Each structure stands twice: as C-alpha cells, then as structure tokens.
Amino acid sequence: MDFISVDFETATPQRDSPCEIGLTVVRDRQIVETRSWLIKPLYYPHFNSFNVAVHGIRPADVKDQPDFRELWPVLQPYLEGQFLIAHNASFDMSVLRKTLATYNIPLPEARYACSLKFSKNIWKGMSKYDLKTLCNMHRINFLHHRAASDADACARLSIKALELTGTTSEAEFADKMGSKIGRV
C-alpha cells in the first residue's frame, strides 16, 4: 500500500497562506522519505500571532524561502497521481486547493483520505482523535505542528491502521478502513 502523507502549517487563518509543507512517502507500508519546505506565504510578512503560537514559524524564518509558485515544480511530482493521506484532510486539502487557485496553478490529479476519519472507525470509543492523542496511544513520538514531523506521524499512524485492518490496496481502502477516498 503506497501513499504520501501531507501536512501544512499556515501563517494566517486564510487557507492560501502555507508557511510550511511536510510530505512523507510510504512504499509497501515502509517510510522511504520525509521532507519539509518552509514557504514564504502570500501575505508575508503578516503572520497571525495565534498561528505562530501553534507552530513557532515566524516571518524571519521564511524571509528567504520560495513562495508556493516557486516551490510547486518540486512539490508537484510528490502529489501528482498519488494517493494522499492527511490528518484532518479537510484542512490540508483546502490549503492545497486554495493556494493553487490563488497562484492559478491547476489541481493535481490525486486522491486523498483522512486519517482522522478512518481512525474513528478503527479505534472506536476514544474521547479525542487528534493527532497528538492518537500518536500518544500508539507511542509515536513527534514534534507536533511542524510539517515534516506531523506528516511522518500521520504516515506511521496510517501504517498501523492499514496493518490492523489488513488493507493492502487502494481498491479495498474504503471498505476495510471505513473511510471515503476523495479527489483533490
């Protein structure tokens, strides 16, 4: 089962303000690569203080980084034609969609699933299903709200879910994981 886990951090509440993206590549249920890129957001140098308090990324950290349009040629091969998984995918996919629309870049042909949603079907009865709670339960260490670490944690959690349900392909994902597959 191959997939790419995705995580965005944003500079402002606007969904087209990514300041970091993290990607973890999983091939045959093995993590083969985790990468992240800082991004100079559209609204630079404006960062919302709440967002900074969450992830710790400041305007000075991204001052000399590429904007999303400049970074897209590097990111596109990771996303195009892939099966993506994100924890709370509605957030991460909306950041991707809105940012691509802002820069007038076509959407990639990709499918996605949400690890928050399938976790509710697999580990029933928990009081919370946020990434931190699930990772604590499964002894997955990570630095929360940094994109590479969150993407890696999402990948590790997803691998555990795939193993537990015996899911070996995207074709059986919806039935065994109890979660729909969407299109970016």
Using the alpha-carbon principal axes, give the shape.
Answer: globular
CATH superfamily: Ribonuclease H-like superfamily/Ribonuclease H
Based on secondary structure, the structural category is alpha/beta
Distance between the termini: 19 Å
Which regions are unreliable across 5 or more consecutive residues at pLDDT < 50? none
Query: Would you state the CATH class?
Result: Alpha Beta
| CATH architecture annotation | 2-Layer Sandwich
Q: Please estimate the helix content.
A: 40-55%
Largest sheet: 6 strands, mixed
Provide structural commentary:
With 184 residues, this protein is an alpha/beta fold. It has a single domain (3-183), classed as Ribonuclease H-like superfamily/Ribonuclease H (Nucleotidyltransferase, domain 5), CATH 3.30.420. The protein contains 8 helices and 6 strands, in the order βββαααβαβααααβ. The chain has helices at residues 49-55, 59-62, 68-79, 89-102, 115-122, 131-137, 147-165, 173-177, and strands at residues 3-10, 18-27, 30-38, 83-86, 111-114, 182-183. It has a 6-stranded mixed sheet, sandwiched between helices. β1 and β2 (18-27) form a beta hairpin. It is globular and about 45 Å long. The two termini are 19 Å apart.
